[in-house]
Amino acid sequence: WILTQLVSKRRHDDHRSDRGQPVTTRPSARASGARPDLTGLNDPADQERKPWPLAILCIVIILLPAYVVPLENRSLAPALLISGGLLGLAILGFVVNRRAGRALNFKPGVLIILVFFLLAMVAYIGEATVIDYAIPDPNNNLPFMVRLAALGIVLYMHIRVNTAQQRTFLLSVLALGLTYLCIIGILQNYANLDLRLLFQPPGFYEAQQMGVTSNVGSLDRFGAKRSYSTSDHASEFAVLAAVAFPLMIHYSRYGATRLIRVLAVAGIGLALVGVLAGASRNGVLALGAAMLVYIWALKLRTLALGALSSAMLLMVMATVIGPDAVARSVQGLWQAISEGASLEDPSIVARVEKYAAIFEVIQAHPIFGIGVGRFPPDMVVFDNQWLKAIVEGGLISVLAMLVLSIGGIVGIAAALRVAATPRERDQAFLLGAMFVGILSTSFTFDLFLFVQVTLIFFLIFGLLWSNYSVPIPGSKE
Length: 477
Known about the structure:
Layout: H1 2-6, H2 29-32, H3 52-63, E1 68-70, H4 78-96, E2 105-106, H5 108-126, H6 142-160, H7 164-190, E3 204-206, E4 218-221, E5 224-227, H8 234-254, H9 258-278, H10 281-294, H11 300-321, H12 323-341, H13 346-364, H14 385-418, H15 422-440, H16 451-465, E6 470-471
Antiparallel strand pairs: 1-3, 2-6, 4-5
């Protein structure tokens, strides 16, 4: 029922200006002669269909942890298999659909993801020349499956998500999923109730990173528990809770009904407590980076009221959950930040000590690295996706990361360019905030090593570019 309310066909919010007056709507893509898909595959009747396969994927990513898989093989994670199926559907649609007599449109987002994927494939080909490093990860094909899943998500999204209504629908499903994620993490931390395997199907087993099984759900850090929720790591959970914060603010302003806006306000408090429950510096970094982008969508008065309301919500949540427990989380997180800044945190010291060995590998294999899924001796975690990329795939992988990062940031401008209503403009800033928030943590932990946050990252990238296309001259019949 909540999902139905979120995507109701009432569009009064879409047709009001900043003064509360109706605005002229955009002409349809068909009327303007510009079809917003890559190759003209979609029938006009498909334009308002809800992209249920992508919605199901959003739910599966959150509800079913990426380490709960059949045969204890992480490459068989349901979210990855669904994404691979979307890639197959996109390719099949391109092959079997007629394109004669239809105006073709060039989608920059498709080009960016294709270049990223092809560069990743070049790195895989180059790794065949490296034989002096073992592969400690039994799921060494997982990085390939993740990149294949990313390609499937973005390509399918560019074919099936062509309107603001469809984009709103997917954001609504993602908001529900992230709310569930925060609730599970909060229950783990403050109620000692672990429900992360609530939706584990029969015959599925836990296969944690690097073959380590049994995710304990919460650990201790400076006296504060660290929740995992349904994520692989507390840092991953904290980052997702952080990007849920601007998403909830968006729905508190543009929810379809008053009830949805009230629930979104409660979601703001859940997201803030979720960041505390993760007790991770990455969560704070993602929250700060995301809000640095999203504040440009807010007026000064709205920003001030939002900051005050968020503080009050946090106090209310702390009162409900337990002031002492929340205070321990705040104290532990602050101590982690302060000691990390002074280079006294053991985790920071361990990262710095790795740099000498990493630079030796870079000097020995500068172009193609040592191979994707391979690691230097006695080193598995880099705590920096860029260092991990240059070690595994050399300069080729770093170039792929640059293409993806710059492409996503430019995508914010593209989404703003096609925004025709205040709600669409706010959505553009929201998607940009979520993208930048996750991207900022690529410098502080191995982003693409964690399937859940990686797939959500590419979902956001696809949504950024989904409505933007450039007509190809001379492509009409």
